[in-house]
Batch of 3 targets.
Target 1
Amino acid sequence: MHRLTNRQILLGITGGIAAYKSAELTRLLKKAGADVRVVMTPAATEFITPLTLQALSGHPVHLQLLDPEAEAGMGHIELARWADHILIAPASADFIARCAAGMGNDLLTTLCLASDAQISLAPAMNQAMWRDSHTQANIEALRVAGFNIWGPDAGEQACGDTGPGRMLEPTDLAERLAAEFDYLALSGKTVFITAGPTREPLDPVRFISNHSSGKMGYALAQAAVDAGAKVKLISGPVNLMPPERVDCVQIETAEQMLAASMEGLESCDLFIGAAAVADYRPVAIAEHKIKKGNEEIMELRLVKNPDIIATVAKHTHRPFTVGFAAETRDLIHYARDKLTRKNLDLVIANDVSVPGIGFNSNENQVTLVTADKATTLPQTSKRLLAKQLIDQIALQLKSKQA
Ligand code: PMT
């Protein structure tokens, strides 16, 4: 089921008594980490309410093709593109017939036409309707067109008949769906990543900060999502768009970054601190803009900020914890010092005195430092480096958990 983490599943529900089982199916898919959007045909709403599916999926249910309100949110073409997989469960004889005929006379059939995603159908109907030669011809046509046909099961039916036509159980459907996706290096893992600088305000218009652009942290977030993880990106102020499928929490100060890092930490498997956190903040924030006085020298009083990554590494539900070290000399020595002092599993050290790498550059060169090893990776783009780092970290995480 871990393969469903972060997958975007469009669940279509058509009119049939088995529609009640789609509530449990939605719950299972959500529990496995999938993002589920539900589309119901008008007949489906006679068997189960959209409100139930909305509560379980966490999103409004899509009901009509020509709905101005829904189109203003996520339009039907956008929804078709959004889906990694379309699962229609239950798929009624009528829906199967319309789909096989290539019709687009409601939202669900239109989505099937408009999407490039794999489509799977879980037929459910009376046994005689299933055996009917039209239905069998339609199913065969859809199979040839590349649709997965999952089920139906045989047994006692709601109408009193016995025979083939029962929808497969939700657990069976969820397992079949999971098997459609590859198992990736971080499938099923929840990853928190801090990125960018923090800003420590002096007054309403001034702050202390640094040159971190967030590029390293955002590249890591993208690589972690690509590796199958569910990612929370805790970001200081940067000029970057968060990667898709990432839950991005925007913060300004170190204290806010700490609070966002601790929230939900129990479910976090891997924490990566790529942010450049201000070590100190002003003791007090002036209520009004500080005016220029006559003095030539102005002194600021600063107080130590909490150490976010060290706090995470002390937590009872401690995730695998990876820090960065931005150094200008004695790279390995200082990185190893951070490794032990902050109780980290791995430190990724970058020499920020080297031009073209580190802060606000598109490339980086890093050394992976553990208690007994230091491995330097060649200089490359932050995007490619992030992929290599995530692969390395996933291996270390796996061997630690084993
Ligand atoms: O954002 P970019 O422009 O792409 O640049 C990337 C980067 C250079 C910022 C990044 O690669 C990097 O090195 N980040 C850490 C920078 C840093 O400030 O390191 P540090 O030596 O101060 O801190 C060591 C570790 O403790 C880091 O994981 C840091 O996130 C963490 N820390 C530090 C202080 C603090 N109060 N809380 C923390 O969690």
Target 2
Amino acid sequence: MTDALSALTRSAGQGGGPPALPVHVGIIMDGNGRWAELRKKPRSSGHREGLRTAKTLVKAALDLGIKVLSLYAFSTENWKRTGEEVAFLMDLIGRHLKKEEKFYRENRIRVVHSGDPAGLPERVAGDLGDIRRLTAAYDGLTVNLAINYGGRDEIVRGVNRWLKGREGGESLTEEALSRCLDLPDLPEPDLIIRTGGESRLSNFLLWGSAYAELYFSDKLWPDWTRSDLEEALKFYAARDRKFGGLK
Ligand code: IPE
Ligand code: IPE
Ligand code: MG
């Protein structure tokens, strides 16, 4: 950790202002395809490299004391890609879940999933269920894998869940809908990072990011390192979060 950043993280939670370290960081891991194309390699090699980066950043988040890391791995819109790319990504995700089970357990990382498991290949949904169960008791870092995830889809599924339990002529409230979303116990994201040069959310955590700080980086995801995350945390620590109020 750089000296400047360690000073910031030390000051977190010591009173006198908001914590300098975000509790929940979300990352839109974008740029795998372009990383590969630049090297005249198939897009799949960019995804493989991107997964390596994801593991490096999970370790960094653990080390830095971040409590929740949400990783956007496959959106509800990514099914529009070629059958070959979709199949590769599903296979890569499935293999990762099996292979890294030990890594998550040894580091006492809780793995959760957001998104619709019903739309996933049975094997991937099963592997996600297994890793969730195996790591459910860990309370250090929580890694939220957003797979077949779309912010709009999450809201619609949440409203439908609420409608099923609705009593009488009750109206929907923000609190009631929040409780019906995929992971109601997770805090809302404080910081959303997008790599790869685009400045859009692409349907990521739409409800929860209402007051998240947004950080955009031109670097392609496979090139990201721990020091890029530290830069984003410095950006976050310098923000003045007002939530619509006055200071
Ligand atoms: C992000 O990288 C990973 C997924 C969407 C699965 P991309 O595959 O979108 O990479 P680019 O944007 O084409 O470079
Ligand atoms: C967002 O990236 C989805 C993930 C990182 C999983 P995309 O590459 O799919 O987003 P767009 O198409 O550029 O908006
Ligand atoms: Mg992209």
Target 3
Amino acid sequence: MPEETIFSKIIRKEIPSEMLYQDDLVTAFRDINAQAPTHVLIVPNKLIPTTNEVSAADEQALGRLFIVAAKIAKEEGIAADGYRLIVNCNDHGGQEVFHLHMHLLGGRKLGRMLPQS
Ligand code: 5GP
């Protein structure tokens, strides 16, 4: 069994978060360290550590991440101007919390996708 992270506690509402959405498959809450005016994390309720562990059984939950991202983007008023969805994986991807999650970032022009190096 993969080790739980703080996100499991947020999903179970054992620790507080600014939760925007929850259903049987996914939960969305504001990032504690926002990198943009809108910065929301959308996570499957099931603990999947990284995108390396996704399986066909997760298709519905992973699809739901996009449905909820689009819904929240509309609610936040950023859909027309646009936004960015990011899923980091492991060390090179910059993943810090090992419970797969989608970042929804918007509310300002986000610039280049990657810093130039
Ligand atoms: P990663 O780098 O793993 O893709 O992103 C993890 C994100 O989780 C970071 O943006 C970080 O600010 C956010 N985060 C970490 N701990 C907490 C927490 O306890 N509550 C909330 N709301 N966000 C968190």
